[in-house]
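Each field is set out as follows.
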Amino acid sequence: MRSPSFPPWGPPPPLQLLLLLLPWPVWTQVPAAAASWGTPGALDCPEGCVCAPGGQANCSGRALPAVPGGLNWRVRVLLLNHNRVHALPPGAFADAGALLRLDLRENGLRWVHARAFWGLGALEQLDLSANRLEALLPGTFAPLRALRALSLAENRLARLEPAALGALPLLRALSLQDNDLPALASGLLAGLPNLSTLRLRGNPWTCGCALSPLCAWLRGHPRHAPEAETLLCVSPGRLTLSPLTAFPEAAFSHCARPLAARDLAMVYALGPVSFLASLAACLALGSAFTACGARHRRRRHAAARRQQRRQPDPGPSTTSPAATAAQA
């Protein structure tokens, strides 16, 4: 019997024999899955995007009117800049819970729901610059506890409430330049303990009492605002072009200080009590006036009856006979 012959390089390794014995579709699945992530419209790639190894989904400049469908946990970087996403509904990115970077620049974005970023607890970089945002709802960024960089530059923000940012303990860079901010609300920067870079140029700063919190922060963090020396007042007239860094703490000594938490608690506690006490006093005074008026009317009626009883009643005529004869 003739022994089996092998090629000159010897018998095939056991692993190659195992692969040859497996059905054809099994050993072709891995290359097909790897190739699908890099092609647009593939199973794991968001709709209308081009994906690359490493989890980047590039959806830039595709005139998309909304956040694309098909987001999943494989997406780590989502580039949605230069599209037409004008609004972000609740849970817009809920299926991309592993997202680390989100770019939404230049979309004409006007409205962001307070729960639009729910589910993005791992997000580290968020770029919302060059849009048309005029206000942000309280709690908008509350879910982004891992956020390290946030850009709101080149929008139309005229006020930014502390409740909108919330507490972002890891945030290191905040860009607010080129908005319509006349001041920063008290407490806005208090929830950002690790903030190391704050960009503020291009805002119409009004140098009044409302600017005191920002000036105090700039004095305490001179290295964290690289453009601080270029920040100038645009009003009022006598302070126009005055640099914000030129105002010491004494410049705001005439401003009324906000109530402390203890004082606010006392006001809130005494407010309803004072209202109820005032209401009770008004009711008591009204009842007293009503009682006095009724008593006065009863006295008048009693006096009138006594006066009527004192007057004699006119009796029948008692004319004498002489007077009657004289009249005849």
